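= Paired protein data =
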Amino acid sequence: MPGSFCMSPKTVLYVEDDPLNVMLMQGILDLGAGCRLRVARNGAEARSAVAAADVDLLLCDLRLPDVAGDALLAELRVAGLASGVPALLVTAESEDVATRLARAGGFDGCWTKPLDVAATLRSLAHWLGHDPRPGS
């Protein structure tokens, strides 16, 4: 998927405490998304990030040091994350468990680790509004 599908700069907030997973996500975005990646390493940083700047897509790890990722979305909405901003739970849990946790937490979808690069790029395009096909 060459080129950028973010026509204007979009901001993806990734709430993730594992530096290797952050590097992988940055690499995926560098391949074709053309988006800015902001990283919060825990729930407190995520709450500050959404209060300070607009976010176009939220990606949230399930296991964070200070809060369960599946419970964090409600807190981020209160902290300033707009209700129309799509949110995806990212986890190493099985797809069935991930889907159940995402649904219960109010997320729009989920990605399971390890991430498939091509599928992740397609899903990013969908959630950032550049692809009408469903993606989760």
